[in-house]
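Sample A.
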Amino acid sequence: MSEKSIAIVGATGAVGAEFLKVLEDRNFPVKEIRLLASARSVGKKLRFRGKEIAVEELTKDSFRGIDIALFSAGAGRSLEFAPAAVAAGAIVVDNSSAFRMHDEVPLIVPEVNPEQIRKHQGIIANPNCSTIQMVMAVHPIHKEANVERISVATYQATSGAGAAAMQELIDSTKQALAGEKITPKQFVHPIAFNLIPHIDVFQPNGYTKEEMKMVFETRKILGAPEMKITATCVRIPTLRAHSEAINLRTTRKISVERVRELYAKAPGVRLVDDPAHNLYPMPIDATGQYDTLVGRIREDVSQENGLDIFCVADQLLKGAALNAVQIAELL
């Protein structure tokens, strides 16, 4: 790969920090790196490849000479600044929800639909974190036996709500253990020793926006507009790595043994499935790891051609920064 000039929008956020780590860990050919954030972060220094680099203010003139711009600053910032980046000649890889469902914007998981990247017109969307790991688990089965329905329950770490939410979990846990009153700021209820079945805003149909993202994005990525999907998304008191209990139905019978064979060969997937020795995917094992862990694979006793699977992936890595950098590598 030739060297590229890279801009990171939202460089001081939780995903921005992971962008830097992943670019360095994967030895991405960076010619220049430009760290962009809001005015209040200007002058803050972040480390990359042994050097301290100062954060600059994000403006519409920030993208001159940039080849690839990695955005993770929220949908509003993406809508405002991504067109300016494209106009300056950069290709945008956007981690927000701003462009995911636009027909002209590819929604890419490199292990699943890399061929779609050729259709980009300057902007490529990084899917929602919970969607990414689900399609990583579902895609090998879908190719083999055609998945026609998915029912998923997610158990999502506080990292999905950003660095401030992760800190709130730490602080509120200390408060709870000390018997102090907890006043939530990042969540609508206390997160310490609690589960909150509410991620993003509720929609008129009773689902949350996060749940409907999983429906619409999965269909787009898999090229399966008629696939039946239902989701319940739950915030849990862990720092990193989302977990998902996936129930699916295929049109063709597929054995558990064959599913294990498929996962053993699937890029970016690691099979962790030995219940006899208490081995199964857990957030503590997925934290800091690139792979999506899959296990608890079993036939669904309630329906024909049904399977149950449990998968875990680091939301800040495969669910965000890693997937975006993999897209940059494809470019």
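Sample B.
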Amino acid sequence: MKTFAFKGLLQRDGWIENPVVTVDENGIITEINPNASTNADIRIDSFALPGFQNAHSHAFQYGMAGLAEVHTTGRTSDDFWSWREAMYSLALSVDPDQMEAIATMVYSEMVRQGYTNVAEFHYVHHDKDGKPYSNLAEMGSRLIAAAAKAKINITLIPIFYQKGGFGKEPTDRQRRFISPNIDAYLQLFEASAKACEDYNGANVGVGVHSLRGVEPSDVVELAKSGPQDIPFHIHISEQLQEVENALAYLKARPVEWLLKNVELNDRFHLVHATHLNESERIGLATSNAHVVLCPSTEGNLGDGIFPLHDYQAEGGKWSIGTDSHVGLNPLEELRILDYGQRLTTHKRNTFTSETEGDSGMYAITMATLSGRKSVNNTQEEFFALGEPLNAAIIDAAPPLLTTSSPTYRTSTILYSSDATHQWGTVVNGEVIVERGRHQAGEEIAEEFAKVMRALGNRMSS
């Protein structure tokens, strides 16, 4: 047994002041005592938020963060589709050891910023020639090993990627991603599920890259007959060109087609879903499926702005992810999401509902509960007996927080905090980040630097 004392602990119904939380040898909560006067094994004079869920990650893309921002001069267009070429170059270059080092680095940075779980949307499956490894889940195993080193919980989502676009064969640049049919994908899935057994903090989800990346009939079959009772993730409607191509090939918009052909429910997580018409938006909101929004990446790629204000009004649920990892701070992701809505709706109450008027509380609740569903966790209380202690710890010392009552504390954290206010992170009952430093940070950074030097992609030509 071990006890933690915090200055405050956020629950669904508000703040518990001066709690002591007891965990067992596995980091599972056995007691939560408010206003406890007992001495604790670990005293943290800071505020505990529920650990954040990163519902969408491509770990390898961290190795190219910032590189696609150096543009040729003149009138040459640069958009999502040209950005993909830089992504393909990195995807074709990394070997398993390098994949593990890059993933360990970005996962450790996630933990440093308060994430305790990550949903890894994984599609770099094969060797550099496009041939399956003898261990079909070799690359997935490296991602799991990276999560174990960084001390983050991982939901590995091996992705079914089959086509090069609507009705098109895959290109040679996509050769490491491809499963030619459902049977090949299911073999990969089974190998990935087996690999998750190597780490107590790992589980598995199922995923399709996109409607343009998999034959539509196979999307339907996998959703209907594939693995059930686990999260199902899919990219959709991220780009206007994608919508136009879907209309030409499917005679329907992407989300429109999905609503008509797949029985969506709360295990489905639609990533981006940026471009929706009114019918799609209402249909998606009422289906109980979730949208995964990645504000910093969507802004970086010029995707567009999701119609969150109306989607929420119709009961829609959403979580956040960091996708390409140009941003890694969950509070910043939430602020970007909110301010994009305020700029387009000219209203300030993005994160509110008929029953919740505290914007900070609304945002953290939505991101937590929907994010947990993305990693196959249905627990609705932030901190519950029988659940692991996973917490993002916010320093209580900043002047705005020391002078704020519990009524204003959550929104003050969301809207006024910067990275220096992130005191630390507790994962499965262990303090992994303390005063902004990951317990294995130096070693992880050193290995990452070696890999970056070996790849050479961050060096000027």
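B remarks: The chain has two domains: 2-50+380-442, 52-374. The mean pLDDT is 95.
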